[in-house]
Design a protein that fits this description.
By secondary structure, this protein is mainly alpha-helical. It has 5 helices and 2 strands; from the N terminus they run H-E-H-E-H-H-H. The longest helix has 24 residues.
């Protein structure tokens, strides 16, 4: 799996340009700290993405938000995609928190939350 680290100079560029950036040496990179941690996944099936996300959650890495790179999102500026994705993510987290506070989580809430998270990935597909 090829990993491309997000840098400040990528933010105004398109997602396609960002993921096709050559990064031969990690020592010289200035990783973007002004943006949230988002993993753009490309070339994976829906099932593979969910497996990756589940495996990521088991690591000791800092949490991240996940999104799929699709053809319609490839030409969008990274900053625009970051705003869209984080808006969707915050809406989901807010709704989940509201249900928890009101003690309204159904018995099957874990399955429901997984379905909502997976919908978030798929919501990004038609928008992009």
């Amino acid at each position: 799996m090829l990993i491309i680290y997000g840098t400040e100079d990528m933010i105004p560029r398109s997602l396609w340009e960002a993921v096709n950036t050559k990064q031969p040496t990690l020592q010289d990179l200035k990783i973007a700290k002004s943006v949230p941690r988002i993993c753009f996944l490309s070339g994976l099936s829906g099932e593979e993405m969910m497996m990756f996300i589940d495996a990521f959650e088991e690591t000791e890495l800092e949490p991240a938000v996940f999104a799929a790179m699709v053809p319609n999102s490839a030409d969008k500026p990274l900053q625009e995609l970051i705003e869209e994705i984080m808006g969707d993510h915050e809406m989901l987290v807010s709704h989940e928190s509201e249900l928890l506070q009101n003690n309204q989580l159904p018995d099957w809430h874990e399955e429901w939350l997984d379905a909502q998270r997976s919908k978030l990935l798929w919501l990004l597909l038609p928008k992009c």
